[in-house]
Design goal:
The radius of gyration is 30 Å and the shape is extended. About 13% of the residues have low confidence. The protein folds into 2 domains: 84 residues; 287 residues, Alpha/Beta hydrolase fold, catalytic domain (Rossmann fold, 3-Layer(aba) Sandwich). It has 417 residues and is α/β, with parallel strands linked by helices. It has an 8-stranded mixed sheet, sandwiched between helices. It contains 17 helices and 8 strands.
Length: 417
Amino acid sequence: MSPHPRHLTILATCLIAVSMTTHASPAVCKTASRAQSDTESEPHAIDALARWVEQNCTPAKIRQLTEDGKHSVRDALQQTLIEAHTRRAQRTGLFFFDPDDATDPLPLWARPAPGHQARCTTAVLLVHGLDEPGDIWDELAPELHDAGFCVARFEYPNDQAIADSTHMLAGALTTLAEAGVTDVNIVAHSMGGLIARDLLTAPDYYDTITADHPELPNIPHLITIGTPNLGSAFAPLRTIAELRDQFHQLPSLKDISAADLLAFVADGDGTAGIDLKPNSPYLTELNARPLPQGTHFTIIAGRIAPAVSDGLADILDSSFARALLTDEQIAALTTQAAAANDAIGDGVVSLDSATSLQIPDTEVLDADHRSMLRTVPLERTIRRWTTGETRTEPPAIPIILDRLAPHPLPSDQPASN
C-alpha cells in the first residue's frame, strides 16, 4: 500500500524552493542562487541548491512530478479500498456460535471450514438488520446456546439492495444444508425479517413452500423482531445509523487505518435505505406475495411510550377531566393518543408497520428497537424512573426461547400461514 512518497516529497520540496525564490523561473532561480554563492556564507551549499533547483524545478519536471503524485495517490486509494472490501468479506457470511473455539473476526463465532459437518441437524440462524454495529445478538446467542440450541449467525453488507442480501442468505442456508443441518429456525431483527421473508416467498428460492427442498433446509419457524413490513419513515435518516455502525466497528483510535475509515464503502451503495422507504417498489412487490406455508410465524414488535399513553388515559378518566370535557372529547383524545403511540412504535418502526401482516402469534413489548434484544442502560434507567419497572434481560429473549422450545404450537394458530 506504499504510495511512492518520493514523488510527493520532491514535488513539495521543489514548490517550496520555487516559493523561496519568489516564484522565479529556473534561469532566474539559478542566477539568484549563483549570486548568493559569491557571498562568503556556505557557498558550496548554495551552489548545490542552485543545481538541484535547475534540475528539478523546470515546468516539465513539475508537471511530471504532479502526474506521478496523482498516480501514487490513486494507487494508494485503490489498494485501501481493496483492503476495506477484504475486511468486510472477513465479517460476511455464516458463523457458528462456539465459545470453546473462538476465531477472529467475531469473538465466540467460528466460520465453518470447507466440508464442515455441523454438530446438529436443527439450528437457529440469526439475521441482523440495517446498519447493525454487530452486537445485537450478544445477549440472545449465549441464552440460546445455554438452552441447548445450535446457533449460527448470518452477516452481510447491510447497505446493499435487500434482494442481494436475500441471495447471500440463500447461500448461507445452502451451506447449512451441506453441513447436515436439515431444519433452520430463523430469528431476524429489523430489516433481517424482510430478507428472511423475501427468501421464503421468492420464486427463485422457497416460493412460499418452506419444506422439501433438497438443496435447502426446512424452515419450521420464523421470528421477526421490529421488522418494518410496511417500511420505515426513518429510512431516509439511515446515514446516522451508518455512522454509528462504522464507529462501533473501529478499533482503538491509535490503530485506525485508512481501510477502517473507508469501511462504509464495502457495506453497499445505500440501496437498502431506498428499499425500506414506505411504498417502495421492493416492499410493494414483497407484500404482494402470500405468506410462506409450512413455517410458524411469530412477530415481536416494540412500543416505547405506553407509560405516556397510560398516564394520559388516567388523566382523561379523572373527575377533573370529566368536568371540563365531554365524553366525545375524551374519547377522541384517547384515540389520538393511542394512534400517536402506535406511530412512534419502537422509535424506528411504527407498530402498524411491524404488525401489518396480521399474524396471530404477535407480541407487542414495551421496549424500543434495540432494547427488545439488547440491554440499553439509558432506556432501562428511564423506564425504572417512569414506571418503577426493573428488567433482568431484554424482553424479547424469553419469548424467543419459548417459541423455539419443543412444545405444541399455540391453539389459535395452525402450523401453516
